[in-house]
Amino acid sequence: MEYRLIVTGGTIDKQYDPLTGELVLGDTYIPEMLARARLTGNIVVEKMLMKESTDITAADREKIADACQAAKEDKIVITHGTSTMVETAKALKKAGLPASQTIVLTGAMVPYSFTTTSDAMFNLGTALAYCAAMPPGVYIAMHGIAFDPDNVRKNLQLGVFTLAD
Q1: Whose CB has fewer CB within 10 Å in the chain, the N or C terminal residue?
Q2: DSSP secondary structure string, the chain?
Q3: d(Cα 51, Cα 111) in Å, to the nearest integer?
Q4: 138 with 156: CB under 8 angstroms?
Q5: Rounded to whole angstroms, how far apart are CA atoms 43 and 106?
Q6: Phi and psi dihedrals of 153, rounded to 5?
Q7: pLDDT tens, per residue, the chain with 165 residues
Q8: How far apart are CA 13 and CA 46, in angstroms?
Q9: What is the pTM of this model?
Q10: Domain around 84
Q11: Cα separation, 84 vs 6, whole angstroms
Q12: What is the distance between the alpha carbons of residues 102 and 131, in angstroms, rounded to a whole number?
């Protein structure tokens, strides 16, 4: 099975800048994460954006949809910031993408670079597994659960994704 992994930025790829004391986006950690998980074959990594999800625009969402449309792989995982992941997933559902594609968006609440407390590796692994197992469609995979984008929200009180109220 071949996958395309589209990188768009977000917390999963943030790192601590000791000079400013802020979390910043640099290069992606995705190749390192795949290597640590011993997933070195059959995954094409496409670094598209390195943005905060709150900075992702409608034009960026169109670019993501175009990348999915152009992909030769039917299994696509998109790393994305959690703040607007739901909006991007909904936009992809409406984009008229090939009916054969399974697209799973994932991210992290804590950056991968915070290795002892991060949920990034678990979420990425879960997303790849759901991508392989789920029927074609668009999903969000966070915290071990695959959600329909139309029935999920980021729960800021709990720090996890939950079913929409």
Answers
A1: C
A2: --EEEEEEESGGGEEEETTTTEEEE-S--HHHHHHHTT--SSEEEEEEEEE-GGG--HHHHHHHHHHHHH-S-SEEEEE--SSSHHHHHHHHHTTT--TT-EEEEE--SS-TTSTTT--HHHHHHHHHHHHHHSPSEEEEEETTEEE-GGGEEEETTTTEEEE--
A3: 14
A4: no
A5: 16
A6: -150, 155
A7: 899 999 999 999 999 989 999 999 989 999 999 999 998 779 999 999 999 999 999 999 999 999 999 999 999 999 999 999 999 999 999 999 999 999 999 999 999 999 889 999 999 999 999 999 999 999 999 999 999 999 999 999 998 999 997
A8: 14
A9: 0.95
A10: 3-163
A11: 16
A12: 6
Beta bridge partners of 154: 161
The amino acid present at 77, given as its one-letter code, is V
The residue assigned the tokens 């994932």 is: 106
CATH of the domain at 115: 3.40.50.1170
- C-beta neighbour count of 155 within 10 angstroms: 13
Match 């759901």 to its residue by tokens: 130
101: tokens are 């594609």
Q: Quote the number of domains for the chain.
A: 1
CA distances from 116 to 14, 87, 112 (A): 15, 29, 9
